């Protein structure tokens, strides 16, 4: 695998078969190849998006289009302090979760490459990925429990006569505590992706750098990091999308509390609007999420177009 | 060897297939229940045979949904069994433990609602009534004026939407019960000042609060507000005309903070915010109990003796006193939290079931399990199996006024009242919090209509 690092082109040139090239332009062939995908997109993407847009300007009583209300739903969202707070929390998640997952993933991947028991390390780090996020939340709710007879962290602190600390009961640290859980759950994913990318770097380049007298730090900063920058940006986009969709960890661990200190957008959508039967407002939140995601997706598609995928 | 093994596999596969089909068929929706009398019921006369009292074909099936599981579900199953014994109609219970209203809403929208739902929270009752998801009790052919006399005055009011009866209260618990450990607290406090001096003399942090479940804080607030301002002001606060900024709500929060603070609460405020409701019960009634006092509703008794610590003796280890008086207009009043039964279809058997649930027979059967307090007047004191439940029924029966849990009557789209109180106990200014809350509640009331 490492022997041939040649990148796969985004648009592979058709090999031979001039006949195929001619048939490609026939409408029937186009329909045959594009039809199923277009139908699926229309049914499962375009229609729901239009429906949601329409619902977001409606009262939405009982989940039906009951009364057109213009932009009232959006205006009322902006007047809802917990919604504004949930966006702030999502921004904190994006900054800290994405950064820590990538940095930790990269560190573990780089270090693991240099030891003989790499597979074991990666298996251990990857293990949390196999746990459902709700189970993750339940496990960590126990770890963070205030009672040192239940909570692992407070039991450890009690052993050195510190605490107990209300990890999830203190508004100023609860969101950070949840981000730490998210980082724990996703670092394995980043490790595996980045580890594969690192292995794609030709050994000759690194050997040549060593021969030229570069030390390991220079190799990392000048060679490895630039060469895995595309996987990192793809990873960052994936993680950001994860954060915008994030719901399970706050729902299971804190139910958004204390106060609204751990609410995130998707939680707000569910708790404040959808489960309150406010379908119009819920749709408005969904549209806000979509709008936040669009630039991220455009960035991602541009990168895919401009560079080859590793 | 391969031959016989393959045959066995085939047989096993066929058996699985058949049983899978059978399994899928049995909980089939009830809408066609009247026409298809199940063979298992053994009714030789078929679908046309009427049951003794109801006039509905025997073997009719209906589905009933609520959010109880465990011991609560077992208790309710006894009521369903009694209903079947009386009418021949089989009511199947479907539990929906979490996100009850959301799932129910989706079932209504999907055109496949259960026949009967027993729901907490009046906001949802009003919402479902407005969207046509639930039927009027009178649409079932039940005489609603005749029902009134079965209940204490005003008890059916929470089930009314715009004057029409949509829901009937089938069970409730008092929320005016303040729990204590009799071994540590010799004289239960009667007034708010008594409570504070008891907390002082106990020392340490003797008051357990499970503030991670923020609804426990709404109950604290409601009890205090009710006692300070009386039942009428309380009802007004939780209605369309409620004003959260007139100072009375802020005063109730300030009063609450006199005891719900770092000095008295087990683990301090932050510790309490990290403690769930059931864990707080463990703090007072568990094996390593640290706390001596705990406020929550009458259902604490069942959870403490049934789940937390089965060795608890009533009343030497666990007991409660009336929520302390505050010298206001509402001393002596009681707050209750209850569940309303509502019909989502008019299928055969639904009327009979609703009727049965208003009958003292169902109330007595249910009360005997110890799981609930029945709102039906004719259910006597001796129906309750233990002293805690007897006392709870007597407290509500003897109250100067009975009000319904206020946070359960707010519109479903209102801001989270519990979250607001979680901020208040952390030291945020109640006046500012209440202003935001008031704005949110107002617009939620407006958007409900």
Topology:
The complex is a heterodimer of chains A (310) and B (449).
Chain A: H1 18-23, H2 27-55, H3 72-78, H4 81-113, H5 118-126, H6 133-143, H7 152-159, H8 171-199, H9 203-211, H10 216-227, H11 229-245, H12 248-253, H13 265-274, H14 279-306
Chain B: H1 2-25, E1 61-66, H2 70-87, E2 90-95, H3 100-109, E3 116-120, H4 122-130, H5 144-148, E4 160-161, E5 164-165, E6 168-174, E7 177-180, H6 192-202, E8 207-208, H7 215-237, H8 248-259, H9 268-273, H10 277-285, E9 293-295, H11 300-308, E10 319-322, E11 334-343, H12 350-357, H13 360-368, H14 387-397, E12 402-404, H15 417-425, H16 430-448
Uncertain residue segments of chain B: 1-53
Number of contiguous helices of chain B: 16
Uncertain runs of chain A: 1-10
Give the biggest beta sheet of chain A.
none
Q: If helices are DSSP runs of H or I spanning 4 or more residues, what is the number of helices of chain A?
A: 14
Order of helices and strands of chain A: HHHHHHHHHHHHHH
Largest sheet of chain B: 6 strands, mixed
Shape of chain A: flat
Secondary structure: helix percent of chain A = 55-70%
Termini of chain A, distance in Å?
12 Å
Strand fraction of chain B equals 5-15%
Question: What would you call the structural class of chain A?
Answer: mainly alpha
Q: Would you mind describing this structure in some detail?
A:
Chain A contains 14 helices and no strands. The longest helix of chain A is centred in the N-terminal third of the chain and has 33 residues, at 81-113. Chain A has helices spanning 18-23, 27-55, 72-78, 81-113, 118-126, 133-143, 152-159, 171-199, 203-211, 216-227, 229-245, 248-253, 265-274, 279-306. In chain A, helix 11 (229-245) packs antiparallel against helix 14 (279-306) and helix 13 (265-274) packs antiparallel against helix 14 (279-306). With 449 residues, chain B is of the alpha/beta class. Chain B has helices at 2-25, 70-87, 100-109, 122-130, 144-148, 192-202, 215-237, 248-259, 268-273, 277-285, 300-308, 350-357, 360-368, 387-397, 417-425, 430-448; strands at residues 61-66, 90-95, 116-120, 160-161, 164-165, 168-174, 177-180, 207-208, 293-295, 319-322, 334-343, 402-404. Chain B is globular. The chains are: A mainly alpha (310), B alpha/beta (449). Chains A and B meet through helix 13 of A and helix 3, helix 4, helix 9, helix 15 and helix 16 of B.
């Amino acid at each position: 695998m490492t022997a041939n690092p040649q990148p796969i082109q985004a648009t592979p040139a058709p090999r031979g078969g001039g006949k195929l090239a001619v048939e490609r332009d026939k409408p029937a062939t186009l329909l045959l190849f594009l039809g199923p995908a277009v139908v699926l997109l229309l049914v499962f993407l375009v229609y729901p998006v239009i429906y949601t847009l329409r619902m977001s300007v409606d009262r939405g009583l009982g989940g039906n289009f009951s009364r057109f209300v213009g932009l009232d739903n959006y205006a009322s969202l902006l007047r809802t302090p917990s919604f504004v707070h949930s966006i702030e929390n999502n921004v904190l998640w994006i900054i800290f979760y994405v950064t820590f997952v990538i940095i930790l993933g990269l560190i573990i991947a780089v270090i693991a490459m240099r030891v003989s028991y790499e597979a074991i390390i990666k298996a251990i780090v990857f293990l949390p990925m196999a746990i459902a996020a709700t189970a993750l939340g339940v496990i960590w709710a126990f770890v963070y429990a205030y009672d040192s007879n239940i909570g692992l962290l407070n039991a450890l602190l009690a052993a050195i006569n510190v605490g107990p600390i209300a990890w999830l009961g203190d508004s100023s640290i609860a969101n950070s505590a949840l981000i730490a859980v998210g980082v724990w759950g996703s670092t394995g994913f980043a490790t595996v992706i980045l580890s594969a990318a690192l292995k794609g770097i030709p050994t000759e380049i690194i050997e040549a750098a060593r021969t030229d007298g570069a030390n390991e730090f220079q190799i990392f900063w000048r060679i490895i990091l630039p060469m895995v920058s595309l996987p990192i940006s793809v990873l960052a986009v994936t993680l950001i999308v994860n954060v915008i969709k994030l719901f399970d960890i706050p729902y299971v661990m804190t139910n958004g509390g204390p106060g609204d200190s751990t609410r995130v957008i998707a939680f707000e959508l569910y708790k404040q609007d959808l489960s309150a039967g406010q379908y119009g407002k819920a749709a408005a939140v969904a549209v806000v999420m979509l709008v936040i995601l669009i630039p991220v997706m455009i960035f991602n598609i541009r990168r895919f177009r401009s560079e080859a995928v590793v | 060897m391969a031959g016989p093994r393959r045959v066995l596999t085939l047989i096993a596969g066929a058996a699985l297939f058949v049983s899978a089909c059978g399994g899928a068929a049995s909980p089939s929706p009830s809408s066609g229940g009247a026409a298809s009398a199940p063979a298992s019921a053994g009714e030789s006369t078929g679908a046309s045979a009427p049951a003794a009292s109801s006039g509905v074909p025997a073997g009719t099936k209906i589905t009933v949904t609520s959010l109880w599981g465990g011991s609560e579900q077992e208790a309710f199953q006894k009521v369903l069994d009694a209903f079947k014994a009386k009418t021949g109609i089989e009511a199947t219970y479907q539990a929906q433990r979490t996100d009850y209203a959301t799932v129910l809403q989706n079932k209504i929208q999907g055109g496949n609602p259960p026949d009967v739902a027993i729901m907490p929270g009046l906001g949802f009752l009003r919402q479902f009534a407005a969207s046509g998801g639930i039927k009027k009790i009178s649409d079932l052919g039940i005489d609603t004026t005749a029902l009134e006399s079965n209940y204490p005055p005003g008890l059916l009011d929470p089930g009314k939407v715009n004057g029409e009866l949509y829901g009937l209260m089938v069970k409730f618990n008092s929320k005016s019960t303040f729990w204590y450990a009799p071994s540590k607290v010799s004289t239960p406090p009667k007034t708010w000042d008594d409570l504070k001096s008891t907390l002082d003399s106990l020392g340490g942090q003797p008051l357990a609060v499970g503030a991670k479940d923020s609804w426990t804080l709404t109950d604290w607030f409601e009890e205090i507000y009710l006692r300070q301002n009386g039942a009428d002001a309380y009802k007004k606060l939780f209605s369309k005309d409620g004003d959260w900024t007139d100072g009375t709500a802020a005063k109730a929060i300030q009063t609450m903070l006199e005891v719900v603070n770092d000095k008295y609460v087990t683990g301090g405020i932050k510790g309490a915010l990290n403690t769930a409701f059931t864990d707080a019960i463990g703090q007072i009634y568990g094996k390593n109990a640290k706390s001596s006092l705990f406020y929550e509703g009458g259902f604490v008794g069942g959870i403490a003796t049934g789940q937390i610590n089965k060795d608890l003796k009533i009343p030497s280890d666990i007991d409660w006193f009336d929520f302390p008086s505050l010298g206001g207009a509402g001393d002596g009043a009681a707050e209750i939290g209850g569940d309303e039964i509502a019909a989502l279809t008019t299928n055969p058997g639904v009327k009979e079931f609703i009727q049965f649930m208003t009958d003292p027979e169902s109330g007595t059967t249910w009360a005997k399990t110890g799981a609930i307090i029945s709102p039906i007047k004719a259910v006597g004191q001796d129906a309750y199996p233990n002293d805690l439940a007897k006392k709870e029924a007597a407290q509500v029966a003897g109250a100067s006024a009975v009000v319904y849990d206020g946070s359960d009557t707010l519109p479903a789209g209102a801001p989270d009242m519990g979250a607001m109180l979680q901020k208040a106990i952390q030291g945020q200014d109640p006046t500012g919090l209440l202003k935001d809350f008031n704005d949110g509640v107002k617009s939620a009331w407006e958007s409900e209509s």
